[in-house]
Amino acid sequence: MDDLLIARSLFGTTMGVHIIYATLGVGIPLMILIAEIMYQKTKDRDYAIMANRWTKGFAVLLGVAIPTGTIAGVQLSLLWPGFMEVVGRVIALPFQIEIYAFFLEALFMSIYVYAADRLTPTMRILSVFLVFVGAAASGILITNVHAFEGTPAGFRIENGQFVDIDPWAAFFNPSFFVTGGHVAVSAFMTGAFVIASIAAFKMWKERKQNRTYKYHQKALMLGLVIGGIFSLLTAINGHESAQLLHKYQPEKLAAAEGLFETQRYAPLAVGGFTDRETQEVKWGIEIPWALSFLAGDRFDTEVKGLNDYPEELWPPLFVHTLFNAMVGIGTMLIFLSIVGFTYRHIFKKDRFPKWLMTLFISAGPLAMLAIEFGWIFACTGRQPWVIYRILKTEDVVTTATNLGTLFILFIIIYIILMVATVLVLRYYFRRHPIEQELARIKE
Amino acid sequence: MTDSLLAISLLWIFVFIYAVAATIDFGAGFWSMIYLGKRQMRATRIANKYLSPSWEVTNVFIVLIVVALVSFFPGATYTLGTVMLIPGSLVILLLALRSAFLVFSHTAKEYEKFLTYVSGISGFLIPGLLILILPISHGGYIKTTGGIESLSFVALLENWSTYAFFGFAISSTLFLSSLLLSDYSNVAGDDEAFIIYRRDAQILGPIVLLFALLIMLAIKVEANWLYENMMNQLAWLVASIVVFALSYGVLWIKKRIPRIAVIGIVIQYLLASYAYGVSHLPYIVYPIVTIESGFTDPNMFRALFVSYIVGFAILIPGFIYFWRLFMKDRRYIKSGDS
Ligand code: HDD
Ligand code: HEM
Ligand code: HEM
C-alpha cells in the first residue's frame, strides 16, 4: 500500500470506530431525556430505572467516544496537514463552536452522573437536556465541516491563495442544514433502535410474561415509537440530501445510482452492482423515470451521467451498493416500527410473533450499519477531492512516510477498546440485573 | 497589541490551563494506582473522587488547543502536523487507553486493579511525551529535504536534553497532583490522606526544581537563542524561584494551609512559563514558523474572537456550578463510595 492509501485507510478506520460511539452518544441522551420526562409524567418507576441504566451504559460509551474523537481531531492535523491549513483559514468556526458544545456536554454529563443524588428533579431534567443539546450540537457542527468539503463556500481563489474569506458564509454553506439535520435525525433513530433491539432481545430470553418482561416491553415500545418517527424524518431529509447532490455534486449522485449517460426520464436502479466495463448496473431492478423525479421532482429532469466527466474524476463505483443499502435499511425500519406499533396498540397484542421479534433484535445493528454505509458513501464518494473541485486528497496528505506501523498500532488499540467496551457493559449489567432493581421498588 | 500577539497569548493561556489541569488529572490517576489496595486506601478514594468528574472537562482542553492552534495559526499547521506525526500519534494512543480504562475501572469493580494499572501507567507517560513539543519547537530536529520537512525522531531520542524535559514533565505531574490532593483531602477532613499526599509533595518539590535547572542547562546548550532571550527575563525567573521557595516552605509549617501552597505553586508556574513564552516569541517553530508567518486571515480571527467571548460567557455559569458541586461541596468530597 502506498502512504496515501494507508493514510486514507487509517483515517477512515478511525472515523468508522468513532462514529459507532458518537452516534450512540447523540442518540442515547435523547432516550434518557424522554425516559426522565415519562417518569415525571406517569410516575411509573420503570422509566426512572430505564433512565438510570441507560445513563450507566452511556457513561461507558462516552469513555470511548471522547478519546476516539480526540484521536480523530488530532489525526486530521497529523494526516491531512494541507487540509487543516485550509480549514484554519476558512472553516474554523464549526470546530471552534463545537468546543463549547463539548464543554457543555462534559460539564453536565458529570453533573448528571456524579451529583444525581444532590439534584432536584427539574435540575436533573435540565442537566440531561443540556447533555442532549451538547451531544447533538457537536455532531451537527463537526458535520458542517464535512458539508463544507462537499459544497465549499465563503472564499475565492486567486493565484492559488484563498482570498475574500467570509467565515460565516463558509459556515452557512449550501448543504449545512440538510446534512447536519440528516446526521442528527439518523443518530436519534439509531439510538432508539439500539435500545429497542436490546429490549427485544431481553424479552426473547425472558419468555414468561412477568414483571421483567413488562419492563422490557415498555422500553421496546419507546424505542420503536421514537425510532419510527425519526426514521421517517431521516428518509424525508435524505431525499433532500440526494437533491442537493443532484444540484452540487452531480458525479456523486451518478455514481450512487450507477448512471453513465446523461438523460431525462432517468431510471432508478435499485440493488445490483455497477460494472465499469459494460457501463451498467448488473442484477439491479430498474424503475423507469424514478431517478429524474427524485432528483428534481419532475420526470423530465435531466440527470447527469458519469460519462460527462473524465474517468479519473469518477468516485469509486461501489458507492452505489453502499447508498442502496443505507436507503434500503431506512425504508425497512420505517415499516418495522409501523408494524410493531400496530400490533401492540391497534391489535392490542401482548406478544409478538417470532419473525417480528427477530426483526426487532436486528433493528439496532442495521441502523448502525446504515450510518457506516452512509458515511463511507459520503466520504469515499467525494474522492478524488477532499474539498470538492478545489483541493485533491493526494495534495493534502502528510509528507511523512512509513505510516504502516502507526496504522497497525491504531487498529490494535481500536480492537482492544471495542472488545473491552462489550466486556465491561456485559459485566456491569450482569452484576446489576434488572430484577434486583425492580424488586427494590416494591419494598 | 497586534492580532497575532493577542492570538498567541490566548493560546498560551489555554496551554497553561491545560498543563495545570492535566498534570493534576494524570497525576491523580497515578496516585490512585499507587495507593490502590494498600493500607492507605483512603488516599485512592480521594484521588478517584477528584478524577471521576474532572477528566472529561480536562480532555476538552486538548481539543481546544489543537483547534485554537489550527484556526489561529494555519500556517504552522503544515509544519507541526508533519513533524508531530509520531509523538502526536503516541500521545493520542496512550490517551485513548488511559481515558477508556479509567472509565472502565469505575464500572467493572472486580477488574479494578488491572484497569487502574493500565490507565495509571499510560496517563503517567502522556505528559512526558506532550512536553517533547518544546524541544522540537526549539529547532534542530527538523530536517528539510527537497522542500519536505521531517522530524529526526532518533536524534531527539538520542539527546540527553530530551530526558531533562521528560523528567521535568513527569515530576511536575506528580508534584502538582500530590499538592492538590493534599488540599482536597484537607477539605474532606481526611487526615490520613492529607499526610500521605503532603509527604509526597515534600519529596517531589526539590526533584522538580532539579529538573527545572537541568532544562535551563539543556536550553543553554541546545538552543542558545532561547537562552539569551530568557536571560533578558531574569526578573521573572527569579521571582518564580522565590515564590516556589515560599510555597514549598508552607508545606513544612505546622499550620495546615495547603491551599496557599497550591495557589503559590500555580503562580510560580505562571511566572516561569511567562518568561519562557515571551522568550520563545516570535517563533512558533524555530526558525521556520513565526506568529506572523503562520497567522490566519483577519476576518477569521475576528469571527473566532467573537465566538470565544460569546462561548465562554455562556459556559462560565456552567463551570461555576460544576466547581461548586465537586470541588467545594463537602457532601461530595466526603461521601463514602467513589
Ligand atoms: C440510520 C442511518 C441512515 C438512514 C436510515 C439513512 N441515512 Fe442517509 N446518511 C446517513 C445515515 C442514514 C449518514 C451516516 O448520517 C450520512 C453520511 C453523511 C451524512 O451527511 O449523513 C448519510 C448520507 C446521505 C447522503 C449523502 C450526502 C452527501 O454525500 O453529502 C444521501 C444522499 C442520503 N444520505 C440519503 C438518504 C436517503 C434517501 C435515505 C432514505 C431512507 C437515507 N439517506 C437513510
Ligand atoms: C464519522 C463518520 C465518518 C466516517 C465513517 C468517515 C469515513 C471516511 C473514509 C472511509 C474516508 C477515506 C475516504 C477514501 O479515501 O476513500 C474518509 C476521509 C475523510 N473524511 Fe470522512 N468520515 C466520517 C466523517 C467525517 C467528517 C465529519 C469529516 C469532516 C470533518 C470528515 C472528513 C474527512 C476527510 C478530511 C478525509 C480525508 C480526505 C479524503 O479522503 O477525502 N469525515 N472519511
Ligand atoms: C458526524 C460524525 C460525528 C459525530 C456525530 C460526532 C459526535 C461526537 C460526540 C457525541 C462526542 C462526545 C462528545 C463529548 O462528550 O464531549 C464526540 C467526541 C469527539 N469528537 Fe466526534 N463526532 C463526529 C465526527 C467527528 C470528527 C470527524 C471529528 C474530528 C474532527 C470529531 C472530533 C471529536 C472530538 C475531538 C471529540 C472529543 C471531545 C472531548 O474531548 O470531549 N468527531 N463526537
From TrEMBL, chain A:
Metal-binding keyword on record: yes
Alphabetized UniProt keyword annotations: Cell membrane, Electron transport, Heme, Iron, Membrane, Metal-binding, Transmembrane, Transmembrane helix, Transport
KW Calcium (keyword) present: no
Pfam families xref list: Cyt_bd_oxida_I
Location in the cell: Cell membrane
InterPro entries in alphabetical order: Cyt-d_ubiquinol_oxidase_su_1
Topology in membrane: Multi-pass membrane protein
Transmembrane portions of the chain: 20-39, 59-79, 99-116, 128-148, 176-198, 219-236, 317-343, 355-378, 406-429
Family note: Belongs to the cytochrome ubiquinol oxidase subunit 1 family.
Name the UniProt record assigns to this protein: Cytochrome ubiquinol oxidase subunit I
From TrEMBL, chain B:
Transmembrane spans: 6-36, 57-78, 84-104, 116-142, 162-182, 203-221, 233-253, 260-285, 305-326
Topological category with respect to the lipid bilayer: Multi-pass membrane protein
GO molecular function: oxidoreductase activity
Keywords from the named record: Cell membrane, Membrane, Oxidoreductase, Transmembrane, Transmembrane helix
InterPro entries referenced in this protein's UniProt entry, alphabetically: Cyt-d_oxidase_su2
The organism's place on the tree of life at top rank: Bacteria
Pfam families: Cyt_bd_oxida_II (PF02322)
Transferase among keywords: no
Coiled-coil ranges (or none): none
Subcellular location: Cell membrane
Enzyme Commission (EC) number: 1.10.3.-
Residues annotated as signal peptide: none
Family according to the record: Belongs to the cytochrome ubiquinol oxidase subunit 2 family.
Name assigned to this protein: Cytochrome d ubiquinol oxidase subunit II
